[in-house]
Amino acid sequence: MKSNEIAKGVYDVGVHDWNISDFHGYSTPFGTSYNAFLIVDEKNVLIDTVKGEFADELIYNITKVVDPKKIDYVISNHTELDHSGSLTRLMHRIGQDKPVYCSKMGLKSLSRHFRQNLNYQAVGNGQEMSIGQRTLSFLETRMVHWPDSMFTYLKEQKILFSSDGFGQHYAGHEKFDDEIGEAIMPHAKKYFANILMLYAPLILKLVEKITDMGLEIDMICPDHGVCWRKDPVKIIDAYVRWSNQESKKKAIILYDTMWHSTEMMANQIAAGLSAEGVDVRPMYLRKWHRSDIMTEVLDAKAVVIGSPTLNNGLFPTLADILTYMKGLKPKNKIGAAFGSYGWSGEAVKIIEKELTAMKFDVIEPGIRVKYVPESEDLDACYTFGQKIGKAIMG
Ligand code: FEO
Asked: Which domain holds residue 77?
């Protein structure tokens, strides 16, 4: 078996992006990969391409398996540019007239991204295509991650090419889950929390659909990170758990501070929560990246948010995380607000309004302290933490 042959006649021709550290606002300290898969049969099929600047590497990787001109079909599971950015360059190389199969929505979005007339062919949900000895079928997966998204299933080998679904932003020499072990799960969790959390209801329906179809899966090949071959059910089960937003007895405290007053409050709230047995983590917003915060939000039962009042409003880092969090639609959370202020003190009310808009259960009125907390203020913060802790522990 050649080194990039991941199953008989199926090759990983994707690339590593070792250097990316910010994937449009998502921190990627381990880089990522843009996976693309070549199936060699009577018809040679390429599933997805890679980000534009890696087009030459993609073509080189294909060349190691077959002459690129011998690719008969291209399948675009997803239009986003990390998977289609090399498409026009690739088509120039393999022949502009070769068909590019995509979903009906993909037809629209590919045409909007690449104005040249490629031979786009829409495939329907459940449609099958013989490629010689083997058969491909297509499964529409709208909003996992864009309206155009679809999965491609290689029937005889029971391989699901799942585009963004079940992916991880991780670049490594491991190709499979069994080569990296449990260490891949935090990357998969972060990916879900930051890319897919808001589509949780659709993901639950998709898993139900796959189960109803009786689709047998021996391997899941996402477009980012490692493939799941040892235990594909493990990542599917994790997606069900994350989509249901099952929480742990855990709280996070998100805060910023100007002169340490809000920080002192955060520390006492944390102590109160901890005294009740809650796993609590204060997260200072100028230390933690928003995407790492959302990974913690995913399975936290309570999110406690503190801000000083600055210019009659929130401290700017709070506006950032609240905007980001609101868009990702976390559910089943307890929320609470706190903060110090000098004269007007609007921040706590603004946070509470945002928590209510996100349908968080605000069980305690927010706590505000003028200028610098005194002993009785810190005692009140500790008690505030205890009350939230009791609600979490049930
Ligand atoms: Fe990896 Fe939605 O693109």
From this structure: 4-243
238 with 263, same domain: the answer is: no
272 and 175, same domain (yes or no) = no
The answer on 259 and 229 residing in a single domain is no
Among residues 346, 254, 348, 241, the alpha carbon closest in space to that of 304 is found at 254
pTM of the predicted model, to two decimals?
0.96
**Range name among 73-87, 106-120, 320-334 with the lowest pLDDT average:** 106-120
**Ligand 1 centroid to residue 127 C-alpha, Å:** 23
Task: Identify the residue whose C-alpha is closest to ligand 1 atom 1.
Answer: 164
The count of domains in the chain is 2
Instruction: Report pLDDT for 1.
Output: 47
Q: Ligand 1 centroid vs 80 CA: distance in angstroms?
A: 5
Mean pLDDT in the chain? 97
Ligand 1 atom nearest to 167, measured from its CA: 1
Pocket of ligand 1 (CB under 6 A): 78, 80, 82-83, 145-146, 164, 223-224
For residues 81 and 127, membership in a common domain is answered with: yes
* Atom number in ligand 1 closest to CA 164: 1
What residues act catalytically? 24, 78, 80, 82, 145, 164, 191, 224
Kindly state whether residues 163 and 298 are assigned to the same domain.
no
Q: Which atom of ligand 1 is nearest to the CA of 149?
A: 2
What pLDDT sits at residue 3? 74
pLDDT at 2 over 70: no
Give DSSP secondary structure letters for 86-135: THHHHHHHH-TTSEEEE-HHHHHHHHHH--S--EEEE--TT-EEE-SSSE
